[in-house]
Amino acid sequence: MIDVHFALLPAVARNKKPDPVLFFAGGPGQSAIELAGQVGRLLGRFSNRRDIVLIDQRGTGRSAPLQCSDARSTRPLREQVDPAVQLAELRECRARLAALPYGDLRQFTTSIAMQDADAVRRRLGAERVNLVGASYGTRAALDYLRQFPQAVRRVVIDGVAPPDMVLPAASSPDAQAAFDALLAACEADAACRTRYPQLRSQWHALLASLPREVTLAHPVTQAEERFPLTREMLLGLVRMPLYVPLLTSALPLAVTDAAQGRFAPLFGLATGTTSTRRGLALAEGMHFSVVCAEDMPRLPATSERPGADFGNGFADLYRRVCAEWPRGEVAADFYRVPPAPVAVLLLSGAVDPATPPRHAERVAQALGPKARHVVVPNTGHGVLSIGCLRDVVFRFIDAETDDDALKVDTACAAAIPRPSVFVPVAAEGGR
Q1: CA dist., res. 267 & res. 258, Å (int)
Q2: Residue 321 near residue 87 (C-beta atoms within 8 A)
Q3: Which residue would you say has higher pLDDT here, 418 or 391?
Q4: Nearest to 231 by CA among 205, 269, 249
Q5: CB proximity list for 167: less than 8 A, separation 6 or greater
Q6: FRET label pair with 333: which of 165, 324, 363, 421, CA 20 to 30 Å apart?
Q7: Nearest partner of 285 among 97, 430, 119, judged by Cα
Q8: CA-based Rg of the chain, rounded to a whole angstrom?
Q9: How many angstroms separate the CA atoms of 80 and 318, rounded?
Q10: What is the tens place of the pLDDT at every residue in 249-272?
């Protein structure tokens, strides 16, 4: 037996609506409760008339946590990017987690966790709930809808990771597409093309120069470190800023500097996407319990082709970890997305390196006429934080009928610009 922890952000109005908003966090491995501050801001308009419910999914937060290590930004750089170090740490973590009273790592699949979520709904006395899921939380929301369709009033999923998406295989072509979009955008933009005229050739020259010894100061501790940088390490560093277009705009500078032997900007960008803030770290034990059970068995049959640059390194790490990780049972129906009985809004960032629109398109087709897919141009992983999209989501859920919800105006999403290429202050004459 385990305790499943949940938190309630209560509605302000005395005469509140009976159908709360149930939020599913990403990862897999994020704690929803630790994201309370961010979720409260994202879904703040709901708090007048609807409760917002945050569940620490089993394996995360305070619900039988499967935490391996803190994502400390002060760790040596080599440890942060070296797959061999990661693999050794995960082996030690797996043995430690298995010794816990709840350490049967086969019991942390998405489907079991969604049965926990429905137990929370019943505990709250809500006949129906509205689902909002982000990243992996979209897979959770889709499985809740599959298992408990009668308990769902409306669904919003942002950055869609469908149940049949083989995460370790899809990550390579999806990251490649996002990086290729960056190169193309730079070549099409006069300012970027003028400042970085050889960006594509410098990128390929950089890849060809690896492995090589690099020396640089740690972005946080400033301690000087020297270690061999491999191709897989470099690609991992580049992949992280692609999640956030504002950081992506600095990649041309970082790649150009790295090609000339200056790696500090690239490491700074990559480590800048990690944080010690509550809610952003993953419970790695829960992460691998989910991915090893749900994604890896489908890896041999996937038709995904690796990206030309990004290759199979990401999948290889998961293959090695999951070869030793206990796997829960996953029913065949888990991978099926049935027609939606209620209105579903799917949101995608056009240059998302993790869950690009192609995955949501497939899900929208399976969900049928009650699904609407909105692609937001020039945005990365997760679009709920964009101001006008928050209003769209509120009006979609607040609409009285499914037909009204599906007619909500989303035109504001088309006006999102791509951030202009980053130019360092020194290059502008110190201004």
Answers
A1: 10
A2: yes
A3: 391
A4: 205
A5: 161, 291, 295, 318
A6: 324
A7: 97
A8: 22
A9: 16
A10: 999 999 999 999 999 999 888 876
